[in-house]
Amino acid sequence: MNFIKKINIKILFVILSGLLVFNACVDKNDWGTDDDYNRMFRPTNLAVTSITATTGDLNFVAIPGTEYYQFEMSNDSLLFDEIIAAFDTTANSFTLTGLDGNTAYSLRIKAIPVDKAKGESEWASVYFKTRAEQIMETVGAGDVASRTVTLRWEAGATVTNFVINDADGTEVQNITITAEQMAAGELEVTGLSPETAYEALLMNGTKQRGSASFTTYPDVPEAEYYIRLQAGDVLTQEMFDAITASTVTVTFPAGTFFTYAETLTLPAGVSFNFFGLPGETKAILNLTQLELGTNHDYVKFANLDISGLVYDATGTPTGGVNSYFINQSGETNTTVLEFSNCLLHDFNNTPLRLKDSADKYIGTFNIDNCMVYNTPDSYYVINCSASNHVVDNISITNSTFYNIGRLFLHNKSNNSSVLIADCTFDTVVAAGRYFFDYSSSFGPSNGFTMRNCILGATQDATAKGIRFNGSPTVTNTYATSDFVLGGASISGLNSYSGASTDLFTDPANGDYSIADELFDGKTSAGDPRWYFQ
Length: 533
What we know:
Layout lengths: L1 H23 L19 E6 L6 E6 L4 E9 L8 E7 L3 E4 L7 E10 L10 E6 L19 E4 L8 E6 L4 E6 L2 H6 L1 E4 L7 E8 L2 E9 L9 E4 L8 H5 L5 E6 L4 E9 L5 E6 L6 E9 L3 E8 L1 E4 L1 E3 L5 E5 L2 E5 L3 E9 L2 E3 L4 E5 L5 E9 L2 E5 L6 E3 L4 E9 L2 E5 L3 E3 L6 E5 L2 E5 L5 E4 L10 E4 L2 E2 L8 E4 L5 E3 L2 E2 L14 E2 L4 H4 E3 L4 E4 L19
Parallel strand pairs: 14-15, 15-17, 16-18, 17-19, 18-20, 19-24, 20-25, 23-26, 24-27, 25-28, 26-29, 27-30, 28-31, 29-32, 30-33, 31-34, 32-35, 33-36, 34-37, 35-38, 36-39, 37-40, 40-41
Antiparallel strand pairs: 1-2, 2-5, 3-4, 3-6, 6-7, 8-11, 9-10, 9-12, 12-13, 21-22, 42-43
């Protein structure tokens, strides 16, 4: 081992000595050169700023001795496998135009020297991505229906197709845009599903030029003519006088407010659906009063807050109260009058009164899935008190009535039927008033049925029950201990030993959820929305 070390040291000494002799023979200022390094410096501080969907500002530090700069662009990440554009320029600051929205670009630049003896610089490169282009208009409330939507964009812009995605981003339609549609900047999409969220992507080939989100409405009742109201629209009599169709659907966006300070008269021979579109809060329909025409196949109200309160122009209650919703003085023959999923409240007199001498006939009157409340001891909720005034079939179902002085009056003529089913009543029937009054002379020829109901507190111990020429059929209907009648008792009721305040969660504030889990009818009686959970 020591021998080997000595040999190695001797060899190293000889090598070092040779190097020292060589260096002593070379001028210390006479260095060799490599012509490969005789080139321009590459541009520095290269950046693309102020990026939009179609433009970007390019800047870099100018290189002295440059004749021009050479650029190349690609759509990859600094790989430059496929050059999509190449150009030369002498400027070191300019705007890139004609870019595609929401697209990745790589750009590289090198300096070409004035002195051809020098080599061109190496490439300097930068990566950037344009913003998503937006040439689409926002989808307005009037552009959407239950199964269609109208999409609009910058007229004449170069586009190829729409991609329609659902809320999960799954493509459900791919629609080619025609030359006529492109020129107009408008296209109607059909074949959509009701109450569904969509995103529309406006494309030019593989490039996105805009997007818009929308949610389709539920299926609205079909009609020959639609009035699609939007927030800020004003109801007028002229709007209805101009109708020439025989069936009309009026839609109200959720959370909006519509009022008319005079009597609104519906044109004769026209059937109406007044339809509130779903949302966080129901649209408010506030009329001084409504007058039916001489004949209608149907007049229906759905998903609306039909309020008797008086509002100012901003939709704020002023403290006043309207007297009626329908206060019918003229002749009418209406086959169906219906309220479904509505709030009917705060009328100084009543939602429905038939008055004066003209003949009036309503074939079927339905209240279903509604909340009816806050009408004083003035008129009955249904107030029909003349021999030539007939509400022939009355159906009250799945609804809640509270804080009402008088309920139902039909005391001068017979009709066909009454059904009161799956309803909750509380703080109803004032002193001496009737729950339902036909007088002792009249009644429904096909029977009076009450089933699956809860009768809570009456407003006075002298309140009265049901009076008509016959006996009601009452099943699975419960009366609380504070449902007290001073006359016209209702036979067949089941007694609940507690008061309405024991049975309901918070009746003073309109919460009629069943609070007593021992109540026999906790999942079978009353308005189903309040069943015990």
